[in-house]
Write a structure and sequence with these properties.
This protein is an alpha/beta fold. It has helices at residues 3-10, 46-59, 74-77, 90-95, 121-125, 134-139, 159-167, 179-198, 218-231, 245-251, 256-259, 264-284; strands at residues 33-37, 64-68, 104-106, 110-112, 148-152, 170-176, 205-211.
């Protein structure tokens, strides 16, 4: 079976290739670009990417807010905070309409923290009017304070992730370079299509990030080739390779850029930050 036949079999052919990375929704100059990081498959470096891209953007002088929308709280833990002891979190923001400023902690960058309570957010929100727009409304008072708001979503396509899509200008999809991970792109795009039709017509996948890449493995190289054959310029040139540094940094409660600032892992996310910023710059001058 050729790579093209495999892509068709897996359903990737349903997603038309895009010649260029899709633009973020053009907002007022002083308003943050809101980007969700989503993939219903866990373990694809979604949290790692949210944190380290955010810190890389901050290194370049941008004001960044990270939002931990995952009940597991891995993003919160990655900044040295314990979700089990947090009294006010994004659960209170979404369900009780608490101002988001009250759950923002100041670490390497600002972070709106998570707690295990978020596991009950889908059920708690389900009976509320306008439940899909709770996050969008929460961002309104703080969007002018930041250049980027980056949202780490849970590994599912439930109401928390829907809230993230409704509030976002674009979605970046970290994809582990293996065949089964690629199949999840179809389901994610189907969910985004529903959101575009009913809630947020501007939201699109603006980039696909190959992660956990191992150039020594034929399987990993072929999976990346399938991505590029099907999505072209939508796939970032940066490939996040496997390294133990990504596991070590959260233990210290830091990003990999702070843990090993001159290492390869840190440079990869600096390269990704350049791609994100260059894509935004080229769209503004198009």
């Amino acid at each position: 079976m050729t790579r093209t036949e495999l892509a068709s079999y897996m359903g990737l052919a349903r997603l038309l290739p895009r010649p260029n990375i899709r633009p973020l929704h053009e907002a007022a100059p002083a308003t943050a670009d809101v980007i969700s990081f989503a993939n219903q498959k866990g373990g694809v470096a979604k949290t790692t990417t949210t944190l380290n891209l955010g810190v890389a953007l901050a290194e370049k002088g941008h004001r960044v807010l990270l939002v931990d929308l995952d009940p597991q709280g891995n993003l919160t833990m990655s900044q040295g905070l314990n979700p089990d002891t947090i009294e006010r979190s994004m659960f209170d923001v979404l369900v009780h309409r608490m101002p988001i400023e009250q759950v923002i902690e100041h670490r390497e960058v600002d972070i709106a923290v998570s707690s295990i309570d978020l596991a009950g957010a889908d059920m708690a929100l389900s009976s509320q009017i306008g439940r899909e727009r709770a996050l969008e409304k929460a961002f309104a008072p703080v969007k002018e304070r930041y250049d980027f708001i980056l949202i780490d979503t849970p590994p599912s396509l439930g109401l928390l992730t829907i809230n993230a899509f409704v509030a976002s200008d674009g979605v970046i999809v970290p994809v582990q370079t293996e065949y089964l991970s690629l199949r999840g792109l179809v389901q994610l795009e189907n969910t985004l299509s529903m959101v575009r039709e009913n809630l947020n017509p501007a939201v699109e996948i603006i980039g696909i990030l190959p992660t956990m890449y191992d150039k020594r493995l034929t399987h990993s190289r072929e999976a990346e080739e399938i991505l590029r054959e099907n999505f072209g310029g939508l796939v970032y040139n940066t490939r996040i390779r496997k390294t133990v540094r990504f596991a070590e940094a959260p233990v210290r409660g830091t990003s990999v850029l702070a843990y090993d600032p001159t290492g390869e892992a840190a440079e990869l996310y600096r390269d990704l930050a350049k791609e994100v910023l260059n894509g935004k710059k080229s769209r503004k001058h198009a």
